[in-house]
Structures are given as C-alpha cells and as structure tokens.
Specification:
single chain; 354 residues; mainly alpha; Peroxidase, domain 1; Peroxidase, domain 2; 2 domains; 3-stranded antiparallel β-sheet; two-stranded antiparallel ribbon; 9 strands; globular; binds protoporphyrin IX containing FE; binds 2-acetamido-2-deoxy-beta-D-glucopyranose; Ccp1-like; heme; metal ion binding; signal; Haem_peroxidase_sf
C-alpha cells in the first residue's frame, strides 16, 4: 500500500491538472515524445512529411485567423472552419481516427486544443530541426481557451495569391512585421502541397528528405533556383522549379513565397532567372513562360524591400553555410507573436504544477 502522504500528493497533482489544466515541463515533453512515437510508426516518407507538415499547418491555420481590427479577433483558439475550402486536408491530421486526435482525447484532453496544437507544432519543429536543437519550450506560454465557433475564420486564411494577401493577413490583421512574416513562411521548408487539397502539387524542397528538415533551406531554394510560372490562368497559379522534369516529385513555390523576393503582384506569369541554360535551353522556356518575362525586383523605396532584406538575413551569410542562427532567432520571435496574439494572462511552463 502507498503511504498516505504519497496518495495525497498524487491526488493533489491530479486535481491541479484537472482543475487548473496546468501544463508543466513534464507534460510538455511527454506530448513531444508521444508525437515522436507516432512519427516513428509511419513507414512511408511521404506520409511522414505530411504528418509532420500537417501539424504545423494546423497550428498556423488556428492562429492566422487573428484580426486585431475585428470585433471577433479569434487567433489560436482551437477553432477551425473545417469545411472551408482553405482548410482542406487538415482533417487528415485532426479527425476521430487520426493518431494526433486520439492521443489528445486519451491523455491530454484536460488542456485546451489550442495549447495542444501549439505544443505539437513546437514538438515537430524541435524534432526536425538541425541537431534537434531548436526548442521553442522556453518561449511557450499556455492557457489558451478554445472557442466553440469561429464563423468567418476561414475567409481570413491566405490562399497564396501573392504579397497583397500576406500584407492583409500577417501584417495588417495579425500585426506582425515583414521580418516575422518571412520567418513564418520559412516553415514551408517542411511538408508539401497536395493536388487534392489546395491544388498546389509539390514540395518546397528539392527532395523528400529535405522536407523533413526544419532549417533555412527555404530561403536558399527561393534565391538560388530558377522559378517559372505554373498553372497559369487557373486559381492555383504558382511556380515550379526549372529542374522539375528530373524529379519524381515536383518542387514548387506559391506566389506568396516567390513574392518575398520578386514582385509577382505586378507581373505574372514570370520567371525568376532569365539568364540560365540547361542543355542549351533557357531554363525559363517552357509552356507560355518566355525568357523575356523576368519577375520584377522591388523598387528601392518599396516597403516590401523589408521582406527581401529578411530573406537575405536568414540565409546566414555567404552560401553554403550551416548558420541557422538568424532564421531560428527570427522564427522564435515571430512564432511567439503569432501563437499568443489576442491572448492575455498566458503563463510559462513551470518545472512542476504542484
Ligand atoms: C501567406 C501565408 C500562407 C499561405 C498562403 C500558405 C499556403 C499554403 C498552402 C497552399 C499549402 C498546401 C496545402 C496542401 O495542399 O496540403 C500550405 C502547406 C503548409 N503550410 Fe502554409 N501558408 C501560409 C502560411 C503558413 C505559416 C505561417 C505556416 C507555419 C508557420 C505554414 C506552414 C505550412 C506547412 C508546414 C505546410 C505543409 C502541410 C502538409 O505537409 O500537409 N504556412 N501552405
Ligand atoms: C549541429 O552540429 C554540428 C556538429 O556538432 C555543428 O557543426 C552545427 O553547427 C550544429 N548546427 C546547429 C544548428 O546547431
Ligand atoms: C518610389 O520611387 C518611384 C520613382 O523612382 C516613384 O514613382 C514611386 O511613387 C515611389 N514609391 C513610393 C512608395 O514611395
């Protein structure tokens, strides 16, 4: 039989979890390792990319509906308009039979979904970061409350049409700086787009393995590769890497990605580098995108030069280098703002809850 003091102590711990839904370090890292366990049971690399990427996208769709100028500001509140077009695919991550949902219901339903999604995304980012060194636990705050409904939230989520949309959502509505927006979009270094969900088919990275590493490669790909327009004239207008034919999986960028360097709002279709040749053929000469249609750079006095400067900063110096510092630092700042937006009285995780 347990000594009575131990029984009392453990009931106090249990009660404090139930009553105050407190999150301590042990709980935070238990979620992290539970997610690692689920990931290790996934044998297909493609599925793993989507499992990891989908979790971070889920947390992002929860916070990107924040509008500080609205009477219903929303934000990270565990509420998603599941049937909205823009959220297609999230239900392969969060559903009754989904491993992540089952984990939550079985073990962690005493904390809010909003907190759980942020912790889960933090876990993904830590697990996929270089040397698993990028740990967002130190800046994590808990205490978000879930909303039962969030009508109109889906209409606030950007679809990828360009930088006007990034400005509307991330800067004007969410109140972030360009350097924050550029850092957050760096999350596209993991995961993939799906024909059946957004209609944007492909990976941001050149290989599937690269799509399982959370690092600054997004910016390197953006600046080093020739990007030419794809799906021209459709709702899914975007960009594909000039080297696409040699890859089993297409490598793509959204207009919202390419516009961090080039003014795709001003000219589209266009090609990012018009002076490159592969086997004697200009890398831009493909379908209706001709080599003379260079994607325009921003004017020196354009406010989006802040985005360009951020991209250059997160490259971490002259390529190639493994300096993840500037990106990780900026990402931590931006992620903190995005995930705490619209909340007061959030608390940092303590060593123990009791
Ligand atoms: C202007 C803002 C954004 C736009 C337009 C955008 C657009 C998209 C699109 C179209 C997809 C493909 C969905 C699919 O077909 O499966 C996607 C996936 C993804 N997004 Fe974003 N996104 C934005 C911001 C963010 C932010 C802020 C984050 C996180 C910090 C993020 C993380 C991801 C991840 C990880 C995936 C991969 C999902 C998977 O593998 O299933 N995105 N995004
Ligand atoms: C990862 O570890 C290697 C070898 O110790 C080191 O050179 C590199 O700078 C580390 N990278 C990060 C981002 O911690
Ligand atoms: C930037 O400068 C150009 C002339 O070089 C001018 O036409 C334009 O209006 C300026 N834009 C802004 C936002 O100041």
């Amino acid at each position: 039989m347990k000594p009575i003091s131990l029984v009392v102590l453990s009931s106090v711990a249990l009660l404090s979890k139930i009553c105050h839904a407190c999150i301590d370090k042990a709980t935070y890292y238990a979620i992290d390792s539970d997610i690692e366990k689920i990931a290790s049971s996934i044998t297909s690399q493609n599925e793993l990319v989507h499992f990891y990427g989908g979790i971070v996208r889920l947390a992002a769709h929860d916070f990107m509906d924040h509008d500080r100028n609205s009477g219903t500001p929303y934000g990270s509140d565990g509420c998603i308009e599941w049937n909205h077009e823009v959220n297609k695919g999230l239900q392969t991550i969060w559903c009754n039979s989904c491993p992540l949902t089952k984990l939550y219901k079985k073990t962690y339903s005493y904390i809010s979904k909003a907190d759980f999604w942020v912790i889960s995304a933090n876990a993904v980012i830590r697990q996929l970061s270089k040397n698993q060194s990028f740990d967002l636990a130190n800046t994590f705050l808990w205490g978000r409350k879930d909303a039962a409904s969030c009508q109109g939230a889906g209409d606030r989520i950007p679809t990828g049409t360009g930088c006007r949309e990034v400005e509307d959502t991330l800067l004007d509505a969410m109140g972030l700086q360009w350097r924050d927006a550029v850092a957050l979009l760096g999350a596209h270094t993991i995961g993939k787009g799906h024909e059946a969900f957004s209609g944007h088919d492909g990976y941001w990275m050149p290989t599937v393995a690269d799509s399982l590493v959370f690092d600054k490669k997004y910016y390197e790909e953006l600046i080093l590769r020739t990007w030419r327009s794809r799906n021209i004239g459709t709702k899914e207008e975007d960009f594909v890497a000039s080297t696409e034919e040699t890859h089993e999986h297409p490598q793509m960028m959204l207009k919202a990605d390419v516009c961090l360097l080039y003014n795709t709002d001003r000219k589209y279709p266009c090609c990012s580098k018009t002076n490159r040749f592969l086997h004697g053929v200009n890398e831009c000469d493909w379908e209706e995108v001709l080599s003379n249609k260079k994607c325009p750079s921003y004017a020196k006095n354009d406010s989006r030069m802040e985005a360009v400067r951020a991209v250059l900063e997160y490259l971490g110096g002259i390529s190639p280098n493994d300096n993840q510092g500037p990106f990780y630092k900026a990402y931590a700042t931006a992620w903190f703002k995005a995930t705490t937006n619209g909340h007061d009285n959030l608390k940092s995780i303590r060593r123990t809850c009791w």
